[in-house]
Predict the 3D structure of the following.
Amino acid sequence: MPFLLHDRDIADHCLTTLRHLAAVGYRFALGGRRNGTVNKGGMGIVMKKLALLATALALVSGSAFAADLRVKAVKAPPPPAFDPWDFAFGAGITNDYIFRGITQSNHKPSVNVYFEPRYNVTKDFQLYVGLGGASIAFANRAAAEIDAYGGARLTVGQFAFDVGAWGYLYPGGTCQYGGGATTDFALVPLSAECQANTLLNFNVMKKDVSFFEVYGKVNYTFSDYFSMGGNVYYSPNFLNTGAEGTYASIVGKAIAPSAWFGASGIGMYASGEFGRQWLGTSDSFYGVPAFPNGINYADYNTWNIGFGFTYKVFTLDFRYSDTNLSQGDCNAFTSDHTATFNGSFTPINPSGVGSKWCGAAGIVKLSADLTAMTNLK
């Protein structure tokens, strides 16, 4: 009876009939006596019907229950396609642009922007390039700092590595030497532009101080709340002075638990850095009478510590920065056009002019940083 396999009403009817026959069979078995004997023929017929109906009911019930258990299969959505491309961009404003403990903006406000395309080879390996810019105030009156960089980032467990090269470009500068000189102290001739321009404090600076560095960084994340790392940078011609430059530092950052600010979305962190800048000997352009072929710049330590708040893409950072450079050695290195005479004589700074560009500074910076994959979806 194949039609029964798909008809619940018939199944119910069979069940009712089975119960009725079972009741009849029961009465035949106990009371179906004729002349003192059991009506075995009637009993046999009833039992056969019971067996047939039981079989049919089993088939019907099994099919019905199976139908009840059927669930329409829902096709799983395909996994999202892996898009290796991403880019980051941002901008900031600060009351003082400090680079390795030395102001680049004459302790005045500065703005910066950047754009960084990224290519994720895998979820743990990224290639990147970037272009950025910042306002500055150098003695040669360079128009701005333009940064061009590129590198690779790799994450291995708790470690994050970053290697690359960074170019610092300072277009629009003017050579400053003057003072009636036609050559430097090593008797190397000066250009007409260098001869024509003189700073009031007689510091000197090349027209173009662009340079590049190669770098390597490593960071270890101990937990969601704390990480530490180290950085090394090297330039064969720091600030185009002719001197080599190597900078190394250790950094640390602690992040406050999100529970501190509840559901506000505000985050907080504290961070710090201690570094040392090693500098070589300049070329003759920056020479002095005692060292006409170039001066051996003073190495120095620098440090900064601060805290900040984050909200969505915004960061507000408060920081203290300082170095151990004397005002005299600072003047020799920076060619600060605002430096004044204060008796800061050193072997490489015989003029006695002292610069405050390398001293203690308080920094406040507001920035916004976005990534396409995170913020622009």
